[in-house]
Design goal:
single chain; Oxidized Rhodanese, domain 1; 5-stranded parallel beta sheet; two-stranded antiparallel ribbon; 6 helices
Length: about 150
């Protein structure tokens, strides 16, 4: 006589299948767009030039705290995208015309995409998006802080 799998075995198998489907649907194949409305896309050298030309330049690191512990661009302010909104931006950028750069981990990271879009929606101008982010900065051996 054939023996059927137990109810527990079938439930476990279904759960594993469901988890696999969920994991694959959130696979990290994201690549950020080339530009974001309301901002100017820059590279590492552009960021250095902006810092030389604007004493009031603000650089916002949109990464989470655990990413920042790996290092960050010197002088940047930590404001994760999850905490970025019109209220949280105000103490960091008190003048909506102040030149401000947002960055995260690079083209595979969507945190700065989200944060800069929120800033634009809040009415901030002179927004710059460092699309290459910390990845590009590190690859070019520019100064980082820890």
């Amino acid at each position: 006589m054939a023996q059927f799998p137990s109810k527990h075995f079938i439930q476990t198998l279904l759960l594993l299948c469901l988890l696999s489907i969920i994991k694959n649907s959130f696979a990290d194949d994201y690549t950020s767009p080339d530009s974001i409305k309301g901002s100017t896309t820059i590279n590492a050298e552009d960021l250095i030039k902006l810092a030389q030309d604007h004493d009031d330049l603000i650089i916002i690191d949109s990464r989470i705290k655990s990413d920042r512990r790996q290092g960050y661009i010197s002088g940047s302010v930590s404001l994760p995208d999850t905490d970025t909104n019109c209220v949280s931006l105000l103490p960091v950028i008190d003048n909506k015309a102040t030149p401000t750069v947002f960055y995260c981990n690079g083209p595979k990271c969507r945190r700065s995409d989200i944060a800069i879009s929120k800033a634009a929606e809040c009415g901030y101008k002179n927004l710059y998006w460092f699309r290459g982010g910390f990845k590009e900065w590190k690859e070019k051996n520019y100064l980082i802080s820890k």
